Amino acid sequence: MLNRTLVTTLERFILDQEAAFHSDASGELTNLLYDIALGAKLIAAQIRRAGLVDIIGTAAAINVQGEEQQKLDVFANETLKNALNHTGRVCAMASEEDEELVPIPDGYPAGRYAVLFDPLDGSSNIDVNAPVGTIFAIARRVSTSGQGTLQDVLQPGRDLVAAGYVIYGSSVMMVYSAGHGVHGFTLDPTIGEFLLSHASITTPATGKYYSVNESNFGRWSLGVQRAVRGFHGDDPTRLKGKNSRYIGSLVADVHRNLITGGVFIYPGDSKNRDGKLRLLYECNPMAFLAEAAGGKATDGRRRILDIVPSGLHQRTPLVIGSAADVDYVGEVIAETEASA
Fold first, then answer.
1. How far apart are CA 51 and CA 316, in angstroms?
2. Cα(122)–Cα(34) distance, rounded to whole angstroms?
3. Taking Cα atoms as reference points, which of 143, 144, 148 lies closest to residue 115?
4. Which of 120, 199, 268, 291 is deepest in the core (most CB within 10 A)?
5. Domain boundaries in the chain?
6. Which DSSP helix (H) or strand (E) runs through 319?
7. What is the DSSP string of 117-140?
8. Cα dihedral 309, 314, 320, 326 sign
């Protein structure tokens, strides 16, 4: 008979991971991840009630990306900042919703980590009750004292110490990695705790699905067009055709492909040369997770985690998912450019 008392909470799991892999661990990273989980619980509670309270719809404001803010965007952003800014574990924050670096308020100590986040990815899905998510990345500070600086957040993804996301869907799930595998935790609303549900997630080398917004097909480069046609089944000697699955929320599309195998593509095009996804808040944390699960992430040419950021809101094309599928896209792009 199943022993229902044998459960592993997020907090216990992270503590066990620190003990196993970091003999000198202080527990700060554990507590920081738990702070983020607390913020996610508060956001999840508001999302569940979105149709019952005045929390859906636009906030009559435009964010730094030039995008119309949803009310839940604003709520999620403030919730995460307030969950982190007083703890003494964070030296600075950077958010997709804020133009400048978010400092620690006066009177609170600055800690050892910088946190970057997209507080509510896919917020255009809110009003139609489709999945949305929170994405986060944690870097160890490189400045020496006082408040954190831009130097602390403008680090390549390969230097992150942890990253993850929370998906708010039919259930609420937090997926994270601190460099030793990728692990998923599902929120049990009856006790208010994230419980281990997906240990050591491994992405298949080749996936079943491809995820891309094909309405932009005519604006893509010839190499990207050829790669996507290959996923249609037009390159049978090299690749078996795949099924198309596109939700329009990075967290939801990457989550599905992380579990079942597949590739997500958001290329640059003639209108947006560098695509629309942000390197620091979306691509770096997702690439960190993909590689920890045995997958890959590139911009079609370079490894995402090797890109040295030059600005808080830098954008980059993204190809992420099963390793063989990501390699195929890169090979087709390179071959097309070489023959041009």
1. 34
2. 23
3. 148
4. 120
5. 10-198, 209-339
6. strand 318-321
7. EEEEETGGGGGGT--EEEEEEEEE
8. negative
State how far the Cα of 287 lies from the Cα of 276, in Å rounded to an integer: 16
- Yes or no: say if 119 and 81 are a contact pair by the CB < 8 Å rule: no
Each residue's pLDDT tens digit, 266-319? 999 999 999 999 999 999 999 999 999 999 999 999 999 999 999 999 999 999
How far, in Å, CA of 113 to CA of 149, rounded?
11
Phi, psi of 264 (to 5 degrees): -110, 135
| 209-339 fold | D-Maltodextrin-Binding Protein; domain 2 (3.40.190)
Per-residue pLDDT tens over the stretch 53-75: 555 555 545 555 555 556 888 99
Tell me the pLDDT tens digit for each residue of 90-128: 999 999 999 999 999 999 999 999 999 999 998 877 777
CATH superfamily, region 10-198: Fructose-1,6-Bisphosphatase, subunit A, domain 1 (3.30.540.10)
